[in-house]
Structure formats: structure tokens, C-alpha cells
């Protein structure tokens, strides 16, 4: 059964895993393969395979990532929840042959759909980046 507490823990765990670039095998239990749809600013992906392609590109592009959740409000309806998430994302990126890396700092406004997984813990079925707003002084993507 989904609860506000289990959803808050899921959100914190999700961003921790992204920050430290865990192996994909540690991300899979958080995702619903057959139903998964992720709408990122640059691409929409489906299922484990689509997500893994996106994830592998991201962990090879960005480093020193820090995700700070400023909002995670869930509307729970039985075994599903719609979650409004706002996260401040900071990351460094280096593009060869530039002499130094650049720092990105932006707010991402997102809508997630979670369902109760087999163990009753949340799993992600839909992840949509609704808006991506660079903060003042941020490098561009």
C-alpha cells in the first residue's frame, strides 16, 4: 500500500541513486518495465531498455550531481499515486576539448505516476519533466 512516507522515501532513494550513479541493476527494482514511460526534455523512453539507454548516456555525461528535492506532494488513489516533484539539479559537464567543465544549476518540475509494486513499495510507471528552468549563472545544456 502506498503511503506519504513510502513515497517520500522512494523520492529520496531515487535521487540518491542518480547522484551516485548506481549500477542499472540497482535502479531496475524502482521501475515498472512494461508500463514505464519517461518523458525527458530531450527524449521519451519506454521500458527498461529505453530507460537504460538514457541512464547510461546521462551517467557518462554529467558528474558531481546533486539533486535537492524542494517539493514532493503525492495524491494517493488506492494503489496508485500522482506525485508533483520539484527538484533543484546541479551537475558538472565536460565536453572535449574544452579546457574546463561547466556547472549546470536548474529547477526541474516533474509529474510522476507510482503504483504499489509486488512488495507493496512504490514503483515508477511514468516520469514526466514538465518544465526545466535554468537558474541564474547556470551553464546551458
TrEMBL record:
Query: Highest taxon of the source?
Result: Bacteria
Its name, as the record gives it, is Nuclear transport factor 2 family protein
**Which organism's genome codes for this protein?**
Spirosoma aureum
Amino acid at each position: 500500500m502506498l503511503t506519504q512516507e513510502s513515497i517520500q522515501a522512494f523520492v529520496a532513494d531515487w535521487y540518491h541513486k542518480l547522484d551516485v550513479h548506481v549500477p542499472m541493476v540497482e535502479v531496475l527494482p524502482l521501475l515498472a518495465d512494461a508500463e514505464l514511460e519517461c518523458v525527458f526534455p530531450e527524449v521519451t523512453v519506454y521500458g527498461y531498455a529505453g530507460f537504460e539507454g538514457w541512464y547510461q548516456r546521462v551517467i557518462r555525461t554529467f558528474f558531481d550531481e546533486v539533486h535537492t528535492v524542494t517539493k514532493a506532494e503525492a495524491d494517493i488513489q488506492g494503489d496508485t499515486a500522482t506525485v508533483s516533484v520539484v527538484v533543484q539539479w546541479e551537475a558538472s559537464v565536460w565536453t572535449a576539448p574544452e579546457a574546463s567543465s561547466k556547472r549546470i544549476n536548474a529547477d526541474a518540475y516533474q509529474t510522476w505516476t507510482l503504483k504499489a509494486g509486488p512488495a507493496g513499495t512504490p514503483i515508477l510507471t511514468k516520469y514526466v519533466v514538465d518544465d526545466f528552468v535554468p537558474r541564474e549563472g547556470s551553464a546551458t545544456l
